[in-house]
Design a protein that fits this description.
By secondary structure, the chain is mainly alpha-helical. Helices cover 81% and strands 0% of the residues. It is built from 4 helices and no strands. Helix 1 packs antiparallel against helix 2, helix 1 (3-17) packs antiparallel against helix 4 (54-67) and helix 3 packs antiparallel against helix 4.
Length: 68
């Protein structure tokens, strides 16, 4: 998968699990397309268990292994 593919899937997960205001705020991180920044912000969400999705956990782990 490409960086853009991961970003699209992360957007979907954020829109599904977060209030729309927070999902919208995450767009600023996604637009940068800087893998480390994206990972750090999403890791905070995972640590706080804000996105209770096994798919999200797997994506984030794979993303880290590939881009960080």
């Amino acid at each position: 998968m490409t960086l853009d593919d991961y970003i699209k899937l992360f957007r979907d997960e954020c829109q599904e699990h977060l209030p729309w205001e927070e999902a919208r705020d995450m767009e600023a991180v996604f637009v940068t397309a800087h893998p480390r920044s994206i990972y750090l912000e999403l890791a905070k969400l995972r640590k706080e268990k804000r996105i209770p999705s096994k798919r999200f956990d797997k994506l984030l782990t794979d993303f880290y292994g590939r881009f960080c």
